Amino acid sequence: MISDPSRSGPLAARRPESFGRDRRVLRRSDYLDTYSRGRRHVGRLLVVFVRPGEGPSARLGVTITKKTGSAVVRNRLRRRLKELFRRSGAFSAPVDVVLNVRPGAEKAAFADLAADFEKLARRVGEGTPA
């Protein structure tokens, strides 16, 4: 599970916790480029597409179909994935990462989602093919 032991106690130094526009994949063309030119890694709950990016840091895009559930369910999943990405140190290089949520992820516990994300992040870091 992702945790940050350096942030224990009320006087611990705080990192910025924002997830601004510069950290997100925003344009449709960037999503399509990531799908067509990126490497795909398949997990139990997620599919990760990664391609080298042009910006100074890693950017995240999340796609969730309406089959997954209502807007409340989809937004909850999106928030959880953004938080996992933000706290993960796996994507330090400037890459574009697009996460596709697989069916059944809406029913999974946060710990299961985090474990699948970490497994895929390690696989991406190693450069192992899908």
Topology:
Blueprint: H1 28-37, E1 39-42, E2 46-52, E3 59-63, H2 71-87, E4 95-101, H3 110-126
Parallel strand pairs: 3-4
Antiparallel strand pairs: 1-2, 2-4
Helix pairs in contact: 2-3
List low-pLDDT spans.
none
Question: How does the major sheet shape up?
Answer: 4 strands, mixed
Shape: globular
CATH architecture annotation name = 2-Layer Sandwich
Estimated share of beta-strand residues: 15-25%
Average of per-residue pLDDT values: 87
What does this structure look like?
The protein is an alpha+beta fold. The chain has one domain (21-126): 2-Layer Sandwich (Ribosomal Protein S5, domain 2), CATH 3.30.230. 34% of the residues lie in helices and 18% in strands. Strand 1 and strand 2 (46-52) form a beta hairpin. The protein starts with 27 loop residues before the first helix and ends with a helix.
What distinguishing features does this structure have?
130 residues; alpha+beta; 34% helix
